[in-house]
Design goal:
Blueprint (H helix, E strand, L loop, with lengths): L1 H38 L4 H6 L3 H13 L6 H10 L1 H18 L1
Length: 101
C-alpha cells in the first residue's frame, strides 16, 4: 500500500507541472491572438485567419503550437503580406514550442 501512495503523489506532482504548462500556453496564445489580431487587421491574412480573437487563438493553437509543421505554412502566408509578419510568427512559434517543452 505505501507504493500506491508514492505513485499517487507522483501523479499529483506531474499534474501540477502539466497544468502550469497549459496555463502558460493559454496565456501565450491569448496574448498572441490579441497582438496578431490588431497587427494583421488590414491584411488579407488577417481577414482570413484573424477576424476575431477566438479565431486567432484557434489559428495560433492549431497552426503554430500543435501543428507538426510548427507554423511553416502560416509563416509563408505571412511572408506574402510582409516579411516582418513572417518573422513575428516565427518568434511566436518558437516561444510556443519552447513553452510546451
Amino acid at each position: 500500500v505505501p507504493e500506491l501512495f508514492v505513485i499517487i503523489r507522483g501523479i499529483g506532482i506531474a499534474v501540477r507541472a502539466i497544468s502550469l504548462v497549459f496555463v502558460l500556453l493559454g496565456i501565450l496564445i491569448y496574448v498572441g491572438a490579441i497582438g496578431f489580431r490588431v497587427l494583421l487587421e488590414a491584411t488579407s491574412l488577417g481577414q482570413l485567419r484573424f477576424q476575431t480573437v477566438t479565431q486567432a487563438m484557434g489559428t495560433l493553437l492549431v497552426d503554430c503550437a500543435l501543428s507538426g509543421t510548427k507554423g511553416g505554412p502560416l509563416m509563408r502566408e505571412a511572408y506574402d503580406e510582409h516579411p516582418i509578419f513572417s518573422l513575428l510568427f516565427f518568434c511566436y512559434a518558437m516561444l510556443a514550442n519552447v513553452t510546451m517543452m
